[in-house]
Automatic annotation (TrEMBL):
<keyword id="KW-1133">Transmembrane helix</keyword>
<feature type="transmembrane region" description="Helical">
    <location>
        <begin position="79"/>
        <end position="109"/>
    </location>
</feature>
<feature type="transmembrane region" description="Helical">
    <location>
        <begin position="121"/>
        <end position="140"/>
    </location>
</feature>
<feature type="transmembrane region" description="Helical">
    <location>
        <begin position="195"/>
        <end position="213"/>
    </location>
</feature>
<keyword id="KW-1003">Cell membrane</keyword>
<protein>
    <submittedName>
        <fullName>Urea transporter</fullName>
    </submittedName>
</protein>
<dbReference type="InterPro" id="IPR004937">
    <property type="entry name" value="Urea_transporter"/>
</dbReference>
<dbReference type="GO" id="GO:0005886">
    <property type="term" value="C:plasma membrane"/>
</dbReference>
<comment type="similarity">
    <text>Belongs to the urea transporter family.</text>
</comment>
<dbReference type="Pfam" id="PF03253">
    <property type="entry name" value="UT"/>
</dbReference>
<feature type="site" description="Important for channel permeability">
    <location>
        <position position="268"/>
    </location>
</feature>
<keyword id="KW-0812">Transmembrane</keyword>
<dbReference type="InterPro" id="IPR029020">
    <property type="entry name" value="Ammonium/urea_transptr"/>
</dbReference>
<feature type="transmembrane region" description="Helical">
    <location>
        <begin position="45"/>
        <end position="64"/>
    </location>
</feature>
<dbReference type="GO" id="GO:0015204">
    <property type="term" value="F:urea transmembrane transporter activity"/>
</dbReference>
<feature type="transmembrane region" description="Helical">
    <location>
        <begin position="20"/>
        <end position="38"/>
    </location>
</feature>
<keyword id="KW-0472">Membrane</keyword>
Length: 290
């Protein structure tokens, strides 16, 4: 059996974090991890823990070596680790549930890889956390942290804060510097990705301002992070990809706003749903064009 060096393991870890924002680059992941630690060392540790657990689950299950190497089994676990730290109180049960959810996300990733209609993106993370929150709400509500309500006292949009937090909130980070580290992580790997990240976080803010959405929601980055992922997922170097990315970003804003109004813990569901819808539309358009 081939042994994996510590260096190779760190590369896998870095890519697993970078892949949260579609960056198959260990340096990108390192910069993002530094950004998380700047905001909260606890969330940084949990991000690493979730990444390692989900990746180990893939290794033990004998899943594709290349996919594991490229961090494709690590990024959902990364998000789960952070999410558990955001929504739950620290305890032994907390750690056990994080481990179970991280492993579960790996198996969902595997299920998505068996079909070629739609990519899973962060759907395994979404399903795992929704199930986890549902179980805790039903059986052990004391494990859950009390969520803070968004105040409506803010009357003006802070565009710098909305920009930075719109990027940082991709991984639940409410810190301006963290958002800039995430942007730098993308920048070292792809200038095109940097452009689409900026587009994905700014366009929702402008659209939401026009729509009259509460400025506090914008300042917290809640309307931008799904747009960032949409733009990164669909954006390319052609005008056609730019337009598709634009449509997906705007659709994600509508879905996010609707989800919040309905009291849903949306996570990155607006991103996944909007990109899936656009991809289906692309297939329809391409089929008619043949």
């Amino acid at each position: 059996m081939k042994t994996i060096s510590i260096y190779d393991s760190l590369l896998v870890l870095g890519r697993g974090i970078g892949q949260v924002m579609f960056q198959n680059n260990a340096l990108s992941g390192l910069l993002m991890l530094v950004g998380i630690f700047l905001n909260s060392w606890q969330l940084g540790v949990l991000a690493v823990g979730g990444n390692i657990i989900s990746t180990l689950a893939a290794c033990i299950s004998g899943y594709g070596r290349d996919d594991i190497k490229n961090g494709l089994y690590g990024f959902n676990g990364t998000l789960i680790g952070i999410a558990v730290g955001v929504f739950m109180q620290l305890s032994l049960w907390f750690l056990l549930l994080m481990a179970v959810a991280s492993c579960f996300s790996t198996w969902i990733v595997r299920l998505f890889s068996r079909q070629h209609s739609l990519p899973g993106f962060t759907a395994p993370f979404i399903f795992s956390v929704w199930i986890l929150l549902g179980i805790c709400t039903w059986i052990t509500p004391d494990l859950l942290l009390v969520s803070e309500t968004v105040s409506d006292t803010v009357r003006e949009v802070d565009y710098v804060q909305a920009f930075c937090l719109g990027i940082g909130q991709v991984m639940f980070q409410e810190n301006l510097l963290t958002g800039l580290f995430f942007l730098a992580g993308i920048g070292v790997n792809s200038w095109t990705g940097t452009f689409y990240t900026a587009l994905g976080t700014l366009l929702p803010v402008l659209f939401a301002v026009f729509w009259g959405i509460d400025p506090e929601m914008l300042n917290m980055g809640l309307m931008g992070y799904n747009g960032v992922l949409c733009a990164l997922a669909l954006g390319g170097k052609t005008w056609k990809s730019f337009v598709w990315a634009l449509c997906s970003v705007l659709l994600s804003v509508v879905l996010q706003f609707a989800g919040i109004k309905l009291g849903i813990t949306t996570l990155t569901a607006p991103f996944v749903l909007s990109v899936w819808m656009i991809m289906i539309m692309q297939k329809v358009v391409n089929t008619k064009g043949e």
